[in-house]
Structure formats: C-alpha cells, structure tokens
Specification:
Elements: E1 25-26, E2 32-33, H1 36-45, E3 50-52, H2 53-59, H3 63-71, E4 76-79, E5 82-84, H4 92-104, E6 110-112, H5 114-121, E7 131-136, E8 147-152, H6 168-178, H7 182-194, H8 200-208, H9 216-228, H10 232-243, E9 252-259, E10 262-270, E11 275-280, H11 287-302, E12 306-311, H12 312-317, H13 319-332
Parallel strand pairs: 7-8, 11-12
Antiparallel strand pairs: 1-2, 3-5, 4-5, 6-7, 9-10, 10-11
C-alpha cells in the first residue's frame, strides 16, 4: 500500500498539561484528571520504552518535568526530543523506535526501511549499526549519528506491523540495489524465501514495478528456483559460467536412473569420467532431503563415482574456483583436457590443488 500522505504514529489521547507525578483524582474545579503516569506507561510500552517529547506533552507531562527527568537521567535522551523513559540499557528495537519517532515527529511519514526493515522482518539476524528510516520527499531532517534517512515520493508501508516499517519486498529490493556483490543478493533472497517471510510472486511483483533494478536477472533466477522447487535456473548458470566459460566437457543433465523401484535424477553427470555434480538451489535442504542426498552420494561412491555438491553461492560468487575444482576431479578420473581461463585473472587454468575457495573470499574476476 502506497502512502504518499503523512502516516505517523497514531494520535494519542490529548489532555491538559499537569505534573506527571501528581496522582489522578478530581481537580479543584471538579474535573477528573487523567493519570499521566498511566498514559505515559501505556504509550511507552507500545514503543519499546521510547516516547517523543510531543507525545509526552500531549499525555500531560509538563516541559519542566521532562527537563528534570532527563537532567537526572531517569529518562535517557536517545535523539533530540526522543527519550527512553527508564535508565536501563536500550535495546535494538528501542533504537529503531527512536529513529522513527525522531524523523516523523509524530505527524509525518517515517518508517524503518532497508536493512533495518529486513532485521525487523527476520531476514537479517542482527540489527544494522546505522538505523535506516524512509520519509517523504522534500523533508528536511537534521543529520544524527547512527541514522540514515531516505526520502521517497511514495513509500510502501506495512499496514499493521509496529514500529512502522517498509514492506519486506521493497526493503529487500532497496538493499539488493545497494549491494555490489552477487553473493549478497543470493544470501538475502534465499534467506527471505527459505524462512517463509515472502513469496517469489510478491518479490517478483515488486521487482516488476521498478523501471530500474540492479541484479534483476539474478533476482528472477533465484525467484524461479524458489517458486518451482527445481534447480533449472541454477543449472543454466552452471552450464554457462562454469562449463562453457572454462572449456569443461559438457555433462549429461537430469537423466533418470532406476534405484530400488524409484527414479533418482542427477543434476550433471560426466559419464566418461564417473563424476557427478549436484546443484543444491535451495541452499539448505530439509532433514529428509539431506538424508536422501547422503544416500545418493554414498551409492555413487560404492560404484566408483565421485560426487561434488555446490549451491547458488559458489556458482554466482566463485565460478572460476568451481571450474578449477571440477577440472581437477575430472583429470584425476582420466579426462585429458585442460580448463580454459575466462579472463586474465581467472584461476581455473593455474596450478590446481589446495584450497579452491579461499577463506579470504571469492577470487573470480568481477
């Protein structure tokens, strides 16, 4: 849902100002006073213990009382005009609430976005050090340490989740558009899909709506893999970037082999050299899938075949290292050919042996 209009935190009950430490009860003029402490506690409980100055004043806290609470550090100032209403350590969710309240000032559009929204959704396991908030185009927000503000003509906001946040699919595409590494794209998309936080259809729909999108082809292949439950996009990339680009022999693909009344399919078989390559597009198999994979690999070993297993990360981020490893195994099994480098820095035709995938990261040419 697009919200070009302001969509700040919900309005709170407004009351006349009085000292928050006073107990509720009848006013000398006969008017019942609201319980300021109760209003503030209720408000803060819904915002990870954080309130904006405007909210505190509207709940009935006086400016002098807010000043005393902050000067004595019973309240912590997280950002200008934004307070944690306690003196305990502040957690990550409170940091996000503080950023949203600071940018929105209670009456403007402000939502957690980008990597921050992905953390809130469960795609990322750790909250980014810099909290990202999206707001309306043209807004002027004073820079603050640990805060990044993105200005948009329209923001796709989740209709119900709190703190207010960008829809997962839009946040994911924003982060994908910022990254320079293909393996990062693979990680993000596979995490979101495997954790059932979105669907390939929703992600592709959001991508289609964008006229410009970095890594579009890779994103479409990954979504196709997640949607179909098959590995054909990954197999196409293996054939193009590993086999053909490095002069490896062409393997047989997806040929059925009868086993104990069932049919097993091998992704790539180099029959003349008894080498198998399995491509695990889903990145992490369920327990029953892992058990099946072990049975197939063990059966291949009993028959004198060598099985290699790769996933999206290797095919996208290190195709040259993969080609070197496959070539080494093929040569050990009797292949007389030589892999061809795909570029000046390609390691596929160099000395083979040792670590094909260095701990320092991918060495394939960009």
């Amino acid at each position: 849902m697009l919200h070009p209009e302001p969509n700040g935190p919900p309005a709170i009950h407004r009351a006349s100002r009085w000292h928050p430490a006073e107990a509720s009860g009848p006013h000398p003029g006969g008017v019942q006073r609201p319980d300021v402490r109760h209003l503030l506690r209720e408000l803060a409980d819904g915002q990870a213990g954080v309130v904006h100055r405007k909210q505190a004043l509207a709940a009935g806290a006086s400016a002098s009382r807010i000043g005393r609470l902050t000067s004595t550090r019973r309240w912590q100032t997280l950002l200008p005009g934004v307070y944690a209403v306690h003196d305990r350590p502040v957690d990550e969710r409170a940091r996000v609430w503080a950023a949203v309240l600071y940018v929105g000032r209670c009456d403007r559009l402000a939502v957690a976005s980008g990597a921050t929204a992905l953390w809130l959704a469960g795609v990322l396991d750790a909250c980014p050090e810099v909290v990202e908030v999206a707001t309306a185009a043209g807004r002027k927000v004073q820079r603050q340490r640990g805060l990044r503000v993105r200005r948009r003509a329209a923001v796709a906001v989740h209709p119900s989740l709190r703190p207010p946040r960008q829809r997962l699919e839009e946040a994911l595409l924003d982060v994908v558009g910022d990254t320079t590494r293909a393996e990062r794209v693979v990680d993000l998309v596979l995490r979101a899909g495997q954790r059932r936080l979105t669907t390939p259809e929703r992600l592709l729909g959001a991508a289609t709506a964008r006229a410009r999108l970095r890594w579009r082809a890779l994103l479409e292949d990954l979504c196709a893999d997640l949607a179909a439950g098959v590995h054909s996009p990954l197999e196409r990339r293996y054939a193009a970037r590993v086999e053909r680009s490095h002069g490896l022999p062409r393997g047989e693909r997806n040929l059925a082999e009868p086993v104990a009344g069932a049919r097993w399919y091998r992704d790539v078989r180099y029959r003349g050299w008894r080498v198998l390559v399995e491509l695990d597009g889903r990145g992490a198999h369920p327990p029953e899938g892992a058990f099946r994979d072990r049975r197939r690999d063990n059966r291949a070993a009993r028959g004198g075949e060598v099985a290699l297993r790769y996933g999206w990360r290797e095919v996208v981020a290190a195709p040259c290292e993969m080609a070197a490893e496959v070539a080494t195994v093929l040569r050990a099994q009797g292949w007389a050919g030589t892999p061809q480098p795909c570029g000046a820095a390609c390691p596929a035709a160099g000395p083979q042996g040792g670590a094909f995938f260095p701990l320092s990261g991918n060495q394939s040419p960009a």
